Amino acid sequence: MELDVVELSRLQFAMTALYHFLFVPLTLGLSILVAIMETVYVMTGRPIWRQMTKFWGTLFGINFVLGVATGITMEFQFGMNWAYYSHYVGDVFGAPLAIEGLMAFFLEATFVGLFFFGWDKLSRVKHLMVAWLVAIGSNFSALWILIANGWMQNPVGAEFNPMTMRMEMTSFFDVVFNEVAQAKFVHTVSAGYVTAAMFVMGVSAWYLLKGRHIELARRSITVAASFGLASAISVVVLGDESGYDAGLNQKMKLAAIEGMWETEEAPAPFTLVGIPDQEDRETHYAVHVPYVMGLIGTRSLTEEIPGIAELVEEAEGQVRSGIIAYDALMTIQEQMQDTPADVMETFEQHSDDLGYAFLLLRYVDDPRNATEEQIVMAANDTVPHVWPMFWAFRIMVGIGMALILINGYFFVRSSFKGMDYPRWALRLSVAAIPLPWIAAEMGWIVAEYGRQPWTVDGILPTALSVSHLSVTQLLLTIAGFALFYTVLFVVEMGLMIKYIKKGPTQDVAVTDEWMAKHEHRLRTHDGNVPEFTPAE
C-alpha cells in the first residue's frame, strides 16, 4: 500500500471502525439478554434471576462505557480526515447521525444510569421498563448509524445540486426506509445478539467447568442458547436478504464476493472455495455449488448475475456519460442562473453518472481531457480487490454455520437433557467465544471494502473525499489512535476478566437462601422449609 493521504485515511478509519465494532455487538446483544432475564425475575419473583440480571448487567455496563469512548473518537474523523466528503454529502449523511445522538444515544445513556442506580428506588415493573428502554436505545443507535451507512451503499432520497455542488436530501422517507439500510440493520443487530449469546454461554460454561455459580450458569446457558439459536438462524436468513439487495443495487460488490469474472448462464453457481487471481481475472481451483448464487442474487432460476467483465464495460459507458455531465456542470458553474436550458437538460440526462467522471480526476485534472486509455483505467478502478472480499465472505459464512450448530446443540441439551452438558461441549463453548467477533469483522470488510472505489456508491469516489492533510499528520494520528484504542481494549479485557473471575457478588445471600428452600421443597414435597444458615 502506498503511503498517500487517501490510503492512510482509509487505514485510519478502518482501524478505528474495526476497533469500535469489538464493543458494539456485545452491547446490542447483552442489553436484550439482560432485559429478558429481568423480565423473568419480575414474572417469577425468583432472586436467582435478579442476581443474573445484575451480574450480566455489570458486564454490559463495562462494555457500554468503553464502546461509547471508541465511537465518539471515530465520528470526529468525518471532519478531520474526510472534509470534502462531509461538505459534499453532509446534508444527507449528517441527518441520521444527528438523530442518533439526540434520540437514541441520550435515551440509552439516561436510562443506563437508572438501570444501575435504581434497583432500590424503583418498583420491579418500573425498573424492568428501564431495562427495556436501555435495550431499545442501544438498538435505536445502531438503526440510525446503519441508515447513514446504508445510504453510502445505496444513495437514495437525494440528488446533486449543480448550483451548490453538494448532495441535497429530497426524501427523508426514502433515506430512512432505504432497503439496503434496513437489511444491514436487521443483519447487524442479529449478529450482535449471537455475539452476546456466545459470550454469556462461554462464560457460563467456564463457571460450570470450574464448579462455580452452578445455578446462575445453567440458567444463563438456557437463555443464551435459545436466544442465540434464533439469532444465528436470523443472521443467515437476513444475510440472504443482503445478498439479494446487493444483486439489485451493488452488482460489482456481489460479483467480487463471488469471484465471478464473466457473466455465467443462469442460475449462477456459488464458488465454495478457490483462489481469485485479479491480474488474470480468473478464480483458480474453484469448487462450485450449482444454482446457489443465482438463487441468492436474483431469487430466480432464469435471471443472470453480471460478471466483473460485463460490469466494467457498463462502467466505461458511465464514465463517458459522466464526462458529458461534467462538461455541462462546468458551464452551469460559469453561468449559474444564466445557464441555457439545453445545458441544464443535458446535465439532468447524465447527472446520475457524474461520479464516474470524478474517477478520472485520479489521472487527469479535467475529465473532459481524458484519453481513451484513461477512461478504460477509470472503468477498471470500479473493481475492488477481490481476494479479501472473497475470503472474508466465506470465513463469515463458515463461522455463521458453526454458530448455528453450537447454539443448536446447547439448546437441545438445555431443553431436553436437563441442562446437563458434557465437559467437551463446555470447553468448545469457551473456545468459541471469539468466533462471532471474527465473523462480524469479516462482515464489515465485505460491506465496506466492497464499496471501493466509492465513499458513496456511484456518487463520490474515495480519492476525492479526503481532507488536505500531510502524510506525516496522518501517520501521527494513526499512531495516536492505535495507542488510545489499544489502551481501551486492554482496559476492557482487564475489567471483563476481573469481574468474570469475581463472579456475581450482589444478592448472593438471598439467592442462596431461596435456592436452599427451593431444593428442600423439591426433595421432600412437604411444604416446610428449614432455617437457612449462610455458609461461613
TrEMBL record:
One of its GO terms (biological process) is aerobic electron transport chain. It is an enzyme of class 1 (oxidoreductase). It is found in: Cell inner membrane. GO terms for cellular component: cytochrome complex; plasma membrane. Pfam families: Cyt_bd_oxida_I. Its EC number is 1.10.3.-. It is a multi-pass membrane protein. The chain crosses the membrane at residues 20-43, 55-73, 93-117, 129-152, 190-209, 221-239, 391-412, 424-447, 467-491. GO terms for molecular function: electron transfer activity; heme binding; metal ion binding; oxidoreductase activity, acting on diphenols and related substances as donors, oxygen as acceptor. It comes from the Bacteria. Its main location: membrane. Keywords: Cell inner membrane, Cell membrane, Electron transport, Heme, Iron, Membrane, Metal-binding, Oxidoreductase, Transmembrane, Transmembrane helix, Transport. PANTHER family: CYTOCHROME BD-I UBIQUINOL OXIDASE SUBUNIT 1, CYTOCHROME D UBIQUINOL OXIDASE. Belongs to the cytochrome ubiquinol oxidase subunit 1 family. This is Cytochrome d ubiquinol oxidase subunit 1. The lineage of its organism: Bacteria, Pseudomonadati, Pseudomonadota, Alphaproteobacteria, Rhodobacterales.
